[in-house]
Amino acid sequence: VIAQAEPTGRRLAIDPKWVGAGALFLALASFWVALPPVTARSILWPIVFGAVSIAGGIWVARAGALRVGIISIVAGVLGIALGIVATRSSVSHLHDVFTWSTLFASMFVFATPLTFAAIGGMFSERSGVVNIGLEGMMLMGCFWGIYGADKTGSWELGVLIGMVSGGLLALVHAFFAIQLRADQIVGGTAVNFLAVGITGYFFVQLYHGENIPSGVGQIPNVNLHIGDVYFFGRAFGDLNLMIWLAFLLVPLSYVVMFKTPIGLRIRACGEHPRAADTVGIHVYGIRYAAVVLSGMLAAAGGAYLSIGFVGTFNENMTAGRGFIALAALIFGGWRPFGAFAAALLFGFSQALAFKMQVYSDSLPGIDVLINALPYALTLIAVAGVIGRSIPPAAVGRPYVKQ
Amino acid sequence: VTEAPTGPPLGVPPDPEDVPTFAARFAIQQRLGGVAAPIFTAVFAFLMGGLVVLSTGHDPFKTYKAIWEGAGMNWLYQFPWWHNTDTLAALALQQTLLLTTTLILTGLAVAFAFRCGMFNIGGQGQYMVGLIMANWVGVSFAGMMHGSHVLLTVLVATLAGAAWGGIAGFLKATVGAHEVIVTIMLNWIAYWIGSYVFSQGGPLQDPATPANPISADIAEGAHLPVFWGDPVLQGLHIGFFIAISMLVVFWVTLNRTTLGYEVRAVGYNPDAAAYAGISVKKNFFLAMAISGAFAGLAGGLDMTGYLYHYGTLDVQSSTIGFLGIAVALLGRNTAVGVGISALLFGALLNGTSTRGLDPNVFKPELAGHLTEMIQGLVVLFVGADVLILYLWSLRRRKFKLPRIGGEGV
Question: How confident is the model at residue A56, as a pLDDT?
């Protein structure tokens, strides 16, 4: 028996955050009901769930938790839109797209370049240098990786050449950011433009802007011979070698960053370079190494993109993945496992967009529009988390030796 | 006191070495370097571009001369000019000035946000949203009076750009999301929205030719008057003067209004501005919205001035909004500077286009990427103001290097 005379409703003492979480859950449900195995065919269900989540979001926003409220509202709108699209696709198409095991395998494919770049970005940012140029370094890895694989005939050398090219571009960024104390965000943007120009120029010069001849050495898949095992067989049974390397890179970078003296030094340079300098750490050296390492890792992700996944090179083929990786890094709180989890999330949205683009038969043109989904989700994630995850204290600030 | 969302993150003690923002850096640099620094930057970038041309087995002098002529710059010495208004050079120069019009506005879109301490790399998306909306309004409402239809089209495009930029400003002001990542994501969203609306079955695709992913032409009544050249051959429209007048608007707004004063104050030091009672959040939002309005206006003028229709492939190959970054930075985020560097990049862009450049001298496909490289080098060197300040201080031997830096992303 709740007294309706209570004007503010404060006696209920509901934490808006919990309502927000519920609203978010409902937003998810509004899309989920339209998918296998539930496969609701009426547009009523997504709309009902989504509307309740939007209403909840409005209540939460008015109750004081503005951020949670806005996220719930946006998620509700997105849930309704995706739910309606799904109810208007045929059931067989939905089963094609939402075979969860293959969708998971696809998620790993899309998450791998993001993971490499995000872990790379972690080293750079933990040492105190913002790396907006991840995108460009990844693009260098894409082109020079496939060039190397084409000319040498081996994918190992291709990946290596790609990584060197990314490292070189990172060295340019490092020189301007560390030595010349240039603004790191402007410098990183410049590095991105340079990479677009360089890869485009040499693509035309060396390949006349046409397709790189097929038969370039591809990074092989690892067949685990578990094809019959339920779910795991299709999700993990035949993944690319680079995907497994990405899985390995995450714990490895965690150990290096948080359990070794080297990691301690990197973090010291990013938190308080003067203190690090005082105890004899070579701040410039550490920062150079970290930025170059970040470029090499981002380029490894790029090389996977061109010779592990797509099998060819297109101008500007990274399509914002470096920035999504940067968002994953922020979303993951500058930590390897957090960044990996965020990369999986963004990878999943890319996989979903990719599959729906191929299989969608609902609304005309929606297969094109669905490509915006990963970027929209990244935007929401970044807007939702920033201010809560705390970056390294000295990130973005050049260090001046005294 | 309003809490400023920039600066060191919460929980970090104030740093005695705390550093001025972009705007403050550029002010320092402007006082010291004057016009010498940007000229040095540009010359150096072209020099490096020439080296790339040379190292890949082409003649840089011939290439740059062909680019100069492709941009129609040789019209300047076709004296008397009034007898040569329809030569090839004149046609090329019209193209250059069309691109200059766009670049002035996309440059201002970057420059205005910069003066508020923000880096707007979303000019491309804001421009694209403007183009899309202009196409929609221009194709619809075909019965409207000539003057009012153009006005409405351009106005809607401007507002659309302002809204798109305003999202980034709003998110920065409310939740502190960094504008660089937000605007990049918005660029890609605009890219796919643009690809969608003009694609087969998309809402703006021309139903008369269902196989082509291209929009219908906007109504005659939504065309801007062309004052030099043939409207059919993309002559120069009066949007050129609108862009020039926007340079004046930019200068007046920044230097002669309360809004501009507050924007610059926030740009120099958000904490000090907040302490003085200026709402930092409001100014972040307003500065991004105004920036977006400039880029949206560019889209509106392009649609009503010479494009008239647009297609999915055009959306996917357009990069003129990104070039605005180099324009603004090379122009030191000032009105005059943006005007001059927009002319420079407009000429470079047109001179290296398939339409402008003589393919016997240098392949336009290569040259297009040369533009991208020069653009990157310009941004790189402009960012390295310390290098220039250092060289300057060697001459003066009295200037102490300023402490500088950016903010965390």
Answer: 87
Tell me the residue length of chain B: 409
Per-window interface: B 324-343 vs A, CB < 8 A: 325-326, 329
Say if the Cβ atoms of A130 and B408 lie within 8 Å.
Answer: yes
Q: Which of A194, A375, A376 sits opposite B376 (nearest CB)?
A: A194
pLDDT of B278 strictly over 50? yes
Residue to mutate among B175, B215, B354, with most A CBs inside 10 A, is B175
DSSP string, A55-94: HHHHHHHHTT-HHHHHHHHHHHHHHHHHHHHHHTS-HHHH
Contact A209 B365 (CB under 8 A): yes
Hey, is A291 helix, strand or coil?
helix
pTM: 0.85
User: What pLDDT sits at residue B210?
Assistant: 82
* Shortest alpha-carbon distance between residue A387 and chain B (Å): 6
CA dihedral B94, B105, A190, B273 (to 10 degrees): 160
Q: Mapping DSSP to helix (H, G, I), strand (E, B) and coil, where does residue A364 land?
A: coil
pLDDT higher than 50, residue B202: yes
Q: What is the pLDDT of residue B7?
A: 42
* Predicted confidence band of residue B386 (pLDDT cuts 50, 70, 90): low
Residue B92's pLDDT is: 86
Mean pLDDT, residues B242-267: 93
For B:1-20, CB contacts with A below 8 A are: 5, 8-12, 15, 17, 19
Residue B23 has pLDDT above 90, yes or no: no
| CA dist., res. B137 & res. B151, Å (int) | 10
Question: Average pLDDT over chain A, rounded to whole?
Answer: 84
| Per-window interface: B 112-151 vs A, CB < 8 A | 119, 121
Chain A CB contacts of B23 below 8 Å = none
| Residue B402: pLDDT over 50 | no
Backbone Cα Rg of chain A: 23
Of B289, B183, B135, B382, nearest to A326 by C-alpha is B183
Residue B158, token pair as written in the block? 């401007």
Question: Residue B85, Cβ neighbours under 10 Å: how many?
Answer: 14
Nearest Cα to A83, choosing from A35, A23, A24?
A35
Could you say which of A66, A326, A397 has the minimum Cβ distance to residue B181?
A326
